[in-house]
Amino acid sequence: MIIYGTALLAVCHLLGIFIGDLLGQALGVKTNVGGVGIAMLLLIAVRLYMQKTDRLPKLTELGVEYWGAMYIPVVVAMAAQQDMVAALRGGPVALLSAIAAVGVCAVVIAIINRTEKPEVIAELVPHHHDNPLLADSE
Q1: pTM (two decimals)
Q2: Which of 23, 74, 75, 127 could form a disulfide with 33 if both were Cys (CB 3.0 to 4.6 A apart)?
């Protein structure tokens, strides 16, 4: 059943690459635009749909979760294949988009940290008096 999760990823990957190629053609570039990201979004959407309709066995879900955890290494490997030198020579757009992405991430993280309630954080931090091993050392 875990293999079904891998098969589901393969279908989503092929669709994502196809849609990324179509998006690249629509934008007038001769490359795939966001195929891996689109594939992962499709995988998330299909998994949520299948869970909601009770069509996702536990073992299949484990296969999907495995590939969901592999998302970052896959994206890093795909990005390593890109020709960054040519992108930077082609104009400052790549550099500006990278700086903008880092800036947006920093702002979103700051907003999330500021909106989180201190009570929730206090509940997550273990107290010394709750742990008998740590209480003896005080």
Answers
A1: 0.55
A2: 23
Q: What is the CA radius of gyration of the chain?
A: 21
Closest CA to 5 of 72, 53, 52, 50: 50
The DSSP result for 41-60, as a single string, is HHHHHHHHHHHHTT---HHH
pLDDT, tens digit, 9 for 90 and up, residues 2-47: 677 778 888 988 998 899 899 889 888 888 888 888 888 888 888 8
Q: How many CB atoms lie within 10 A of CB 78?
A: 13
Range of the domain at 136: 84-138
Residues 68 and 129 in one domain: no
Residue type at 87 in one-letter notation? A
Do 71 and 99 lie in one domain? The reply is no
One domain, residues 103 and 125:
yes
Number of domains in the chain: 2
Nearest-angstrom CA–CA distance, 24 and 30:
6
What does the DSSP assignment read for 56-85?
A: --HHHHHHHHHHHHTHHHHHHHHHHTS-HH
Give the separation between CA 102 and CA 118, rounded to whole angstroms: 26
